[in-house]
Amino acid sequence: MAGRIDTLLLLGLPACGKSVIRRYLSSVPHEVAASQFHIGPMVQLDDFPHVHFMWRISEAMAKLGLGRGFFDSAGEQFRDPYEFGTLVRLLNEDYSALSASSLAAEPPGEWIMNRLENARASTGMPAPFSGLDRRARKAVADEIDGEAAPFAAEWSGRVRPPGSTVVIEFARGGPEGSKLPLSAPYGYSYALSQLSEEILRSAVILYVLVTPEESRRRNRARAEPGAHGSALHHGVPERVLRESYGIDDMMWLMEHSEEPGTVTVPAPQANFHLRVACLDNRHHRSSLRRAPRPGEATELHESLCEAFAGLVG
Question: Quick check: 207 and 311 in contact, CB under 8 A?
Fold first, then answer.
């Protein structure tokens, strides 16, 4: 791949620094982004909004006496870990919608529920709302309608400008103590295998390395009272960090790829080999929750330049 990066997969454990990196890349002048990071104006996709709506639907179902929906009785962990595949299928749809005139035709709450149902079915999982009659389903949709409306409007109006770079951000891992390689539906191996060929044909990976222990420590810090109010400050329950992000398989995938400097993604016709660069953030380079001190932004900038140089060629 030469020149501009078309699609960037920004991957790493929760609280590793992905959001800070994304915000920093958005802040540099366009000419610097193009010449030093090989990216155009960024269009950002993230699976966190989908997790949020899954949680809101589960909350609404519990409130109406209709079960817990997608989450367990504590409302923290997915009842079925194959929901990680559902999230990737939704990202595939988000990506395709950037190049087409897509509209959220139904009422917003219904539209969200239909999208979740279709994405879940595409992974081979049963329909999540099959036990709800029409009245109950409408009651759940009405509960999330207010939050769904602005998301649906933004989704419908989103268009990818010429020369832009799509940044797709997500975290994956597996239960603490698991052996590598991780088995489906855990880890990046499974998640990457669920991405559409449309994405895989043009994607490269920037992987932000922290240890699971450091991910948990930073997650606790960013969830402190008073830290909320931005995408940089959403905390993940400790149990989820240990059961879904207790181990990270990206370095294993890099070490066992068919081609050096890539991650191998199996595909029916021919395997994809996605270029990958690792930004080692174990020493707080981008775990900033404050204005950078002198030298910090420069260090981050230089590290990003080095990482992005390995993604083009």
Answer: no
pTM: 0.93
| Enclosing H/E stretch for 166 | strand 165-170
Q: If we measure between CA atoms, which residue out of 117, 60, 108 comes closest to residue 86?
A: 117
Question: Domain extents for the chain?
Answer: 1-41+161-313, 48-160
Q: What is the pLDDT of residues 31-64, one digit of tens each?
A: 999 999 999 999 999 999 999 999 999 999 999 9
CATH fold group of domain 1-41+161-313: Rossmann fold (3.40.50)
**What are the angstrom distances between the C-alpha of 37 and each of 23, 57, 110, 114, 310?**
14, 39, 40, 38, 10
Q: Are 95 and 196 in contact (CB under 8 A)?
A: yes
- Note the helical H segments in 44-172: 48-63, 83-97, 108-122, 134-157
Cα–Cα distance for residue pair 35/51, rounded to 1 Å? 35
Dist CA 300 CA 176 (whole Å): 30
